[in-house]
Fold:
Amino acid sequence: MGRVRAWLRGIRHLPIPLALALGLAPSALADARWAALYPQDGRRDLTGADLDRYRGAGVLWCRRPDGVPQKAAAAWLVADPSVVVLNAHNFRDRRLEPTRAVSECYFQIGGRNYAFAPDSLLLGTAPDSRALHITDDWAILRLASPADAVPQPLPEPSGLPTGDVSVRVTMVSPAGHENYRGPSSLEGCTIRRIDPPSEDDIRRARHDCNDGYGGSGSGLFDAAGRLIALQSASSVMNAKRAFDPESHYGSALLFEGRLAAALKDVLHRHGD
Structure:
């Protein structure tokens, strides 16, 4: 996951007195803040060459209650310089209650900021849904004006089989992670399992890519450099241990099913 603070809270959310009462020394708290999820951690900062290869990489910024902007998550310019794909949980909690308004946020790419078009938010959840799931944790927004940037091509079906797999991918995290010291990151990692389709005929990919708060919306790219999945959540944050497909893994949703159809519909309705 990246952000998903309402879903998974690590020990960094404990008040310091309570954390100390539980026997967590200040040094332990600091270590947890910077802990990778797995024993291996191959993350490095994004370079200019990476941004040329993984086009459309942007950042969602949102204003705190005091009005100060802060990085919220990764977001992607896809197939059109005014179409942005990101996670639904940036605007809804697990029970689909609104957490912030779109007007409180903006999209940043190439060092420039762009406002979102009012009332353009399209959520992946069905109208009768009562909860947010991994596979409907997507949203599409339009910018008020096109970005001066090259978008990611429209994702094609990945062709990955359902079940246990071993597919090398690259996780690109333009917003970085709180447990990584750089402003952005890239890491080679592996998709280990593809779950059967659930909401909207979209499948979940379980992977061993390191994640941290702020990393939601990161893109998973295959060996050919194609965007195939959008990071949603990790089962446990800031707990360095071996990947386990049942208890310690990252979850990304594949670009297929209703997400793929919704993207095509948005592009068609705007004449693209």
